[in-house]
Amino acid sequence: LLTIFIVAILDLFAELFYFHWTIWWYDTILHFLGGLSIGMAVLLVWVFLYKSLPTDQSRVVYAAILGALFN
């Protein structure tokens, strides 16, 4: 939740001060933080549904693919 809030604030500043157009690496940071947020959200849903962290490697890969599809 915190990373989503940070991304929202950084994007608001980017829109107000034209950071997307003036700082070439700014968008890369926002994409990284957005992906981190999605990954943490998938892990949170996983723990909520299965009441434990994923232990099987195939489950982790499956969760990562689903997280990437909805990013």
Class from helix and strand fractions: mainly alpha
Order of helices and strands: HHHH
Rg for CA atoms: 15 Å
Q: How much of the sequence is in beta strands?
A: under 5%
| Low-pLDDT segments, ≥5 res | none
- Overall pLDDT: 82
Helix content: over 70%
Description:
The chain is elongated and about 45 Å long. The mean pLDDT is 82. Helix content is 82%, strand content 0%. The chain is mainly alpha-helical and 71 residues long. Helix 1 (2-17) packs antiparallel against helix 3.
Note the main attributes of this structure:
71 residues, mainly alpha, 0% strand
State the gist of this model:
The chain is mainly α and 71 residues long. Helices cover 82% and strands 0% of the residues. The protein has helices at residues 2-17, 19-22, 26-50, 57-69.
Write the layout of secondary structure elements.
Layout: H1 2-17, H2 19-22, H3 26-50, H4 57-69
Helix pairs in contact: 1-3, 3-4
